Amino acid sequence: MMSEQFRSGTDFQVPNERPCAKNNYCIPPQYNENRIVLMVKDPWTLYSYWEVKKEVEDRVRDDMRQKGQTASKSILRVFDVTDDTRGGKNGTVLDFELRNWANSWYVHTGAPGRTWLAEIGIVSASGDFFMLSRSNKVAAPSYGMSPERDKEWDCPEEMYYKMFAIAGGYGGGLSSYEMRDILDKHLKAWLSSGGITSDIFGSTGLFLGRR
Amino acid sequence: MAKGYLALVLHAHLPFIRHPESENYLEENWLFEAITDTYVPMIEVFDGLIQDNVDFHVTFSLSPTLMTMLRDELLISRYLRHLDRLIHLSEKETERVKNEKRFHDLAVMYRDRFIRAKKVFSEIYGKDILLAFKKFNDLGKLEVITCCGTHGYLPSIDPYKAGIRAQIKTAVDTYKNVFGSVPKGMWLPECGYNEGHEKILREFGIQYFFVEAHGVLFGSPRPKYAVYSPYICESGTYVFGRDLDSSKSVWSAKDGYPGNYNYREYYRDIGFDLDFNYIKPYINNFNTRVNTGIKYYRITGATDQKDIYDHRLALETAAKDSADFMNSRQKQLDNLVDLMDRTPVIVSPYDAELFGHWWFEGPDWLNYLLRKMHFDQDKIKTITPGGYLKLYDKYPPIKPSMSSWGYKGYSEVWLDGSNDWIYRHLHKISELMSESAKQYTAPSQVEERALNQMARELLLAQSSDWAFIMKTGTFVNYAKDRTKEHIGRFLVLHDQLRKGEIQETFLKESEGKYNIFPDIDYRIYARID
Question: Which residues of B touch A168 (CB under 8 A)?
């Protein structure tokens, strides 16, 4: 499991002399609220951003002190809640230490098809977690052929890969084992090299000129 | 009896760019270039096919922002001035190169094209080319559908379902104003889909939508026919998956048809090649070089030494490429027929602006393809999704998988280090919008106007184009400014509303500048689920 902080904070520069910039619509860096939001980037990656209200943090730190504990570090804790309908925390738990006032994070779960929940909080020196804010739940998509088969519209694995071969432009004539291998590679190459946007852009892109 | 079907889907979209306060936004040119290079040539292709009794069926998606701009008086008057400038420039070019025959032939071609574009736009369709699309739709040749209100990338709006509902409702309302009915289908911006969107589409009477190939291939239960049949979602909405093979042959800049060396080179434009003072009066006095649309060279190869463009050779190549496309689809069908117990449909969606603007010969390629399919064979026929859905009583079930047609197949393009900062603001104003909609159940007239304008600003801030531009790195300041401006205007209006101090002048200015969705009703945001 890896984590990577791409950026924190927001960028409010308005380096433009034209009228809509002259109106100078400054947007606030934060909204003085307690919130953490989780989004899905792809089957393996989530994105989270948050804001912690000072009063909430003060209250939590007071609580820690009253319990005789000292704050050790700020943590983003991400729970796999796929198999727990009560919103509990029985699955995988991923912890990321937050430094330098980070207010967003890309979480590489490496586990497609799971449902996730995040909390931001403070871990005490003795290892107890004190929550500051809890996020929405998100479901990352599964990756690959579904194990589920419909009785009326059954699709054995061999058939799936034969059809897939035609969709990928490989035609027929290979054994299902060969096809599966080729198509796994093909799909990974297709997705990692980009669908359309890596070599010809979408419509707006067509107007950018790419000079 | 056809062995299979081809469902060509062309998606036309441009973000809402309209600056009544200034003519110095070269981004407005995107619309003008698209009209001249793509929409008018496409209309001419379809009119020609109808005139020659060619049976064809194509799906054409028109985004609500594009439909709005195509009926905007200010933009249309600016377009006509732009076109007149181009006509003058091309006339001047015929003089400048009169002693160089190959250049002169091309200058004449451009002059004639611009004059023809003006005739089609102004005289034949009375400055309203949506009438052309309505005609083709009424004739059953095009199945015109639409896209979300401001082309919002739906997976990024997911935390706020009311926002998705507003994107779809504004689209349906805009479409109804032009075409008089609910669209049969919807193109999801960037093919961006996540679980639950199909239910909201159904609420508004949308029959079908499209996903990228793996949206179907990774769907559940396992899809029996891969992407060669639609599937039915639990909500009753049908979903079609994009065919990768046919898409690749057109889309890929490296291996696709548009990269053929005989085709026109996009980057060699006289706007950059000729003396700036010569060009300047014809490019709206922008203080920077821009494309004019007059280009004299062919791609030639991976070299800066470009050959002069030969239009006849390029058209021959387009004819060959259309034959290749048709033959490749026939071969695909040969492989599919033994595997399927129903007639396959190959779904091939493309951005409409690829044809004509980027790939100059694209409309000719389409013209040749549709004629060849009609006259030269009967193995594969064109069909629309609506037409295909009439063929069978039942379709296999599926829960599609989250997907997009962007880089890496998911949300990377619209959610990365270059643009992720926008989401905390977009989500916040979505939340404020819903709170306000619930709170103001009996607003005064001015409060209602403020609430409706807040909804417009929110929708405009959500355009996927802004995040896309931030990611791709050109025109970034414009995209950032627009995002900040809409969020900023929303927050100002919200603050004034909350304090009971709505400033009429600011409200009026916002309404005048961002006048999209005149009949919007902010109450769409009151429903939370």
Answer: 244-245
Do B472 and A51 make contact, defined as CB atoms within 8 angstroms? no
User: Is 0.90 surpassed by the pTM of this model?
Assistant: yes
Tokens of residue B294, six digits: 């007059």
| List of chain B residues whose C-beta atoms are within 8 Å of the C-beta of residue A195 | 212, 404-409
The closest CB to that of A47, out of B33, B224, B415, belongs to: B415
Given a contact cutoff of 8 angstroms between Cβ atoms, the answer to whether B138 and B130 are in contact is no
Nearest residue to B32 (alpha-carbon basis) of B17, B44, B48: B17
State the Cα–Cα distance between residues B173 and B519, nearest whole angstrom. Answer: 8
Contacts of A144 in chain B (CB under 8 A): 218
| Element spanning B351, H or E | strand B345-351
Q: Considering CB atoms only, which of A42, A139, A169 is closest to B248? A: A169
List of chain B residues whose C-beta atoms are within 8 Å of the C-beta of residue A208: 469, 472, 474-475
CA dist., res. B360 & res. B153, Å (int): 28
At A4, list the tokens: 């990577």
The CA distance from A67 to the nearest CA of chain B, in Å, is: 34
Question: If pLDDT is split at 50, 70 and 90, which confidence band does A23 have?
Answer: low
Tell me the pairing of strands A35-42 and A93-98.
unpaired
Inter-chain contact A41–B410, Cβ cutoff 8 Å?
yes
Count CB-CB contacts under 10 A for residue A6: 12
Are the CB atoms for A93 and A77 separated by under 8 Å? yes
Gap between the Cα atoms of B130 and B137, Å rounded: 10
| Among A204, A180, A184, A196, residue whose Cα is nearest residue B403 | A196
Work out the minimum CA distance from B459 to partner chain A, whole angstroms: 17
In angstroms, rounded to a whole number, what is the distance separating the alpha carbons of residues B477 and A162? 47
Nearest to B409 among A11, A195, A200 (CB): A195
CA dihedral B405, B410, B414, B419 (to 10 degrees): -150
CB pairs under 8 A between A and B: 246
Whether the CB-CB separation of B294 and B93 falls below 8 Å is answered with yes
A206/B251 Cβ within 8 A:
no
Contact B409 A190 (CB under 8 A): yes
CB–CB contact B358 A206 (8 Å)? yes
Which residues from chain A sit within 8 angstroms of residue B292, using beta carbons? none
Are residues A207 and B213, on separate chains, in Cβ contact within 8 Å?
no
A160, A179, B245, B246 from A165: Cα distances, Å:
9, 7, 10, 13
* pLDDT tens, per residue, chain B with 529 residues: 799 999 999 999 999 999 998 887 888 999 999 999 999 999 999 999 999 999 999 999 999 999 999 999 999 999 999 999 999 999 999 999 999 999 999 999 999 999 999 999 999 999 999 999 999 999 999 999 999 999 999 999 998 999 999 999 999 999 999 999 999 999 999 999 999 999 999 999 999 999 999 999 999 999 999 999 999 999 999 999 999 888 888 877 667 899 999 999 998 999 999 999 999 888 876 778 888 999 999 999 989 899 999 999 999 999 999 999 999 999 999 999 989 999 999 999 999 999 999 899 999 999 999 999 999 999 999 999 999 999 999 999 999 999 998 888 899 999 999 999 999 999 999 999 999 999 999 999 999 999 999 999 999 999 999 999 999 877 899 999 999 999 999 999 999 999 999 999 999 999 999 999 999 999 999 987 7
Prior bond of B349 cis (ω within 30°): no
- What residue has token string 């804010």? A133
Report CB contact under 8 Å: B469, A195.
no
**Is the ipTM beyond the 0.90 threshold?**
yes
Q: Identify from B484, B487, B491 which residue to disrupt to test chain A contact, counting A C-beta atoms within 10 A and taking the largest count.
A: B484
